[in-house]
Structure formats: C-alpha cells, structure tokens
Amino acid sequence: MTGKLHLNEAVIQRARQAASQIADDVTAQVMERTTVAIERTVLRLFGVDGVDAEGVPLANVVVDHALSRDLLAGGIAYPFVGAMMVHGMTAQELAEAIGAGMVQLGTEDLPNRVDIQVKAREMAQYALDGIAANREKRNQYLGRLGEGKQPYIYVIVATGNIYEDVVQAKSAARQGADIIAVIRSTGQSLIDYVPYGPTTEGFGGTYATQANFRIMRQALDEVSEEVGRYIRLCNYCSGLCMPEIAAMGALERLDVMLNDALYGILFRDINMQRTLCDQAFSRMINAYAGVIINTGEDNYLTTADAVESAHTVLASQFINEQLALRSGLPEAQMGLGHAFEMNPMLEDGFLYELAQAQMAREIFPNAPLKYMPPTKHMTGNIFRGHVQDALFNMVGIMTQQGIQLLGMMTEQIHTPLIYDRHLAIESAKYIFNNARHLGEEINFKEDGIIVRRAHQVLAEAVQLLENIVDVGLYQALASGMFADVKRTATGGKGLSGVLMKSADYFNPFADELRVRLGITGTVQQEEVRRG
Q1: Distance between CA 320 and CA 334 in Å, rounded?
Q2: How far is CA 528 from CA 28, 31, 329, 500, 503, in A?
Q3: Which of 272, 281, 178, 325 is nearest to 482 (CA)?
Q4: Which of 72, 311, 510, 515 has the fewest Cβ atoms within 10 Å of its own Cβ atom?
Q5: Handedness of CA 108, 109, 113, 117 (dihedral sign)
Q6: Could you give the dihedral angle defined by the CA atoms of residues 459, 29, 123 and 196, in that order, rounded to the nearest 10 degrees?
Q7: Does the predicted model carry a pTM greater than 0.85?
Q8: Locate the D-Lysine 5,6-aminomutase alpha subunit domain: which residues (predicted)?
Q9: Which strands, in side-by-side order, build the sheet including 179-182?
Q10: Per the omega criterion (within 30 degrees of 0), is the bond before 151 cis?
Q11: E strand or H helix that includes residue 335
Q12: DSSP H helix total and E strand total for the chain
C-alpha cells in the first residue's frame, strides 16, 4: 500500500533530514545528563525491589542517599556495586542496609575501579539475559498460538482494582481484543516513585506496579491459551518514572508501552530536559525487550484543530521516529500515534481523515501505527457516536493501521460500561472482516481532494521541521508549535532530578544495550566525551 498519494520522495527525505538534525541536537544534550529515574532503573535492573520500613521504594532510598552525598553524577553503579563487593552483600541486601541506616555509601575504601566495572557489567549482562529470555518466551507464544491480524483491536480496562481488571481483560480477550491496555491511575505520571505491590484502589485507572504487571501478564497468558491466540499487554511508562516502568515492563513481559517524552512535556507539564533523558534510556530497554512503543501525537488534536494542525502530528511523528532510532528501536516497534479527530460536520472530512491515515502509512510503511478514535467531537448522541467510530474503523482497515484503539459510543456520557466495549469490538470485527482488502482495490485521483490534502500536510510538516532546526526543539516547545501548548526548558516537574554527568560516569546497562542493539553514530559521542 505505497504510492497511492503520489508523495514526492525528495520532500519526505527533506522532512527526515530535518528531523534527524533535531534528534541529533536533542541526543547531544541528553548524552551530557543523567536523572534520578535513570539511576533508580539501574538499581532495579540489578535486582533492588521492595520498600523500606516507611513504605518508600528502596530504589528511591538508595538514589536519594547517593544524591545527598554527591555520588550520583558518576552514576549509581560505581559506588553501589563497590559497596556490594566490600560488604559481601547482594544488591537487595545492600539496599535494605542503606534503608536501615546500616551502610553509608562513600565511606568505604572501594576496590579497584576496573574490578567494580567488571562486576557491574556481569550483573548487567545477567539482567539483560533475563529480558532476552522473556522476549524469546513471547516469540514462542506467537509461534505456537499466533495472534490477531492487524489492525490489532486495542481496548482498555480501568477499574482501579487489578483483580477486577483481570476479570474484564479476560472478558475482552474472549470477545476479540488483541491488546489489553491497563489504564494507569490518574496522576501517577507525576509522582517521582513507583508504587509497590498489588493495588486495589486507583483513580480513573490502576497503578502501574511490577506486581500488577505480573498479575495481568499471568492472566493474559491463561486466556491466550483459552482463545488460541497471544493477547498483548499494554501499560504506560511515560512520566517521571519512565525508564523504571520500562524496566519493570521488560522484566514482566509487557508487549506495548506508552512511551513519549513530547506527550509528557505538553500534556503533563514534565520538564523537557528530564523526560527526554529518561526517554532515551527507556527506549533502549523497550527496544531490547521487543516492546512496541506508542507515541502520543493523537493528543495534539484534542487541544488544537485537527484540520489546521494536522501537519504538527506528522512533524512530531518524524521527530519521534528519529529519536527512537537513536535508542536502537526498530521501525517495527514504533507505534507512532495519530487520530481521527476532525469535526464530523466538516464537508469531506472523511476524505481528509483518509488522506492523513494513508499518508502516515506510506511515509512510515514498517511502523505499526497507533490510530486513535474520535473523542473531541463525540456527544451524548450515542447513535451518531457509533457511526463516527464505524467510519474511524473503516479508515483503519483501508489504510492498514497497526493498532486500532476502539472508540466507545458512550464515552462522552460516562465511563463506558462493559457492554459498550463489547459493541465496539463487535463493530470493529465486522468492519475489518468485511472490508479487509478494500484498500487494495482503491486508487486516488492525482488531482483529487485526498491527494492534494496529503501533499499540503506534508509540505507544511517539512516547513515546520525546518523551522525547528533553526530554533531547536526546546524553543519550538516553548513557542507552542505543538498542540497550542507552551512549555519552557526550565519549567515543569522533575528538573531537580537532572544531573550533569561527570567525566567518569558509568552506566553498565546503557553500555551493554548499545552493544546488543548495535547502536552507532551520534550515540558514540558519549564514548568520545568519556575519553
């Protein structure tokens, strides 16, 4: 399904070149910094888990302790692994000892630095081997059970109680869902720690915890066997704990994760320096774990007009693609986001929506594009809403989207009921089956509305990207180029958790992942910086 829009490949390459320059600039700045979340992730991958006597996650306890002693700029790995060797403790034992006040980092005479690095790298290799085994287990399920055809039918559960979520998730899988997304509790993206253990009380969703991940993954494995196809699990690693939750997802075999710094900056007011650093490391983890990331460009059209601002979605997709490549994430794991959000009263709006979706498919042919349903213009008229969702599903199958997030006809009235979800799945299955190969039967007029619209949006996206090259992404975000929302480089939440790296900074997971993922090019600036 390429070439129907007669897009100029040279113009597409201009856009990619501009996005590449933007991504290089961002990556160069990211390379110079670490964050408390990145260092907590290192500890979690070493095996640190649980909470102290006051319920504070031990990963936070250790990193905050190291930060208070000015030990974090070089990375937590060196002082922590060195102390493990001195005291003859496991990572968990040392974390608990620090939490109990029995050990203070920086007071010991540590072993030779090279010996510490060797030990740390061995620990990193062991942890990453476990993640690789999880990826292989997923592949075995897919090989034995198979899975649903794309577009994957994606539905949500959001009760707040993980055990009730399990009941609803299994029901949705039996009805035909391919991806179950456990919506995260409202506001969790803004807390600078990861809650611990199974949770039964959330707000508009269920807390993302490693225990909850494990419970839901086990449940979906059970229902996968029952229905005879692999059911994918999705959760959110955006927010202040982005790399930690990515690591927990890798350890518990999640399949899809929301992972987009730009979304966090614009819609959660998370500091851009903080979250772009966190995103780079988290995407390396997702890449190695075989996790499909979802990006949040669809949200731009909830605050900006979907007709006038369509090019900002495409520009952001180009940027997200280039940033993902720099973290070793292949195109097959890039669930770039867009949405069916134009005013349904717009004449020929369906043609414009079709143009946008077909354009995304042709420009990103190997990406499992994430397509969002109409929300902004849904009303209390459930009958019109069901028709809007049907048109959305028709575009999804005609343009071969990868992940189809189903709309619910009552979502502007109340939290959709279980039967609303059943109707949504039933409708999507009907349309996908009856129009499976419709797109292959259709070509577009070279001078028609659809083709002209796609060329216009691409041209405007190129212009926007080249403007961003001139001013830089940080200034572009500050001026409100995306989603009509303005954010500054020093504003937002989490800036205090960003540190400039020292010359001897050491992160064994980042180093090992670069090798295993074959990351080359701009990321090698890090090795040059460290001599």
Answers
A1: 9
A2: 12, 11, 22, 16, 11
A3: 272
A4: 515
A5: negative
A6: -80
A7: yes
A8: 5-511
A9: 334-335, 292-294, 256-258, 232-236, 179-182, 152-157, 403-405, 370-372, 337-339
A10: yes
A11: strand 334-335
A12: 20, 11
Q: What pLDDT, on a 0 to 100 scale, did the predictor assign at position 2?
A: 52
pLDDT digits (tens, 9 = 90+) for 453-505: 999 999 999 999 999 999 999 999 999 999 999 999 999 999 999 999 999 99
What whole-number distance in Å separates Cα of residue 121 and Cα of residue 117? Answer: 6
Alpha-carbon separation of residue 482 from 15, 217, 259, 486 (angstroms): 16, 35, 17, 8
416's tokens: 């959709």
Amino acid found at 87: H
Please, what sign has the CA dihedral across residues 400, 405, 408, 412? Answer: negative
**pLDDT for the residue 412:** 79
Q: Which amino acid is it at 368?
A: P
Q: Where are the domains of the chain?
A: 34-145+501-531, 157-453
Q: Which residues of the chain have pLDDT under 50?
A: 1, 522-531
Strand, coil or helix: 473: helix
Location of structure tokens 């405007």: 460
**Facing residues of 184 across strands?**
206
Superfamily for 157-453? D-Lysine 5,6-aminomutase alpha subunit (3.20.20.440)
| Three-class secondary structure assignment of 376-434 | CCCCCCHHHHHHHHHHHHHHHHHCCCCEEECCCCCCCCCCCCHHHHHHHHHHHHHHHHH
Which residues, 6 or more positions from 2, have their beta carbon under 8 angstroms from its beta carbon? 362, 365
Tokens of residue 78, six digits: 């060196």
Q: Are the C-beta atoms of 181 and 156 separated by less than 8 Å?
A: yes
Which one-letter DSSP state was computed for residue 253?
T
Residue with tokens 């009235």: 413
Residues with catalytic annotation?
263, 298, 370
* Residues contacting 223, CB < 8 A, separation 6+: 169, 170, 173, 174, 231
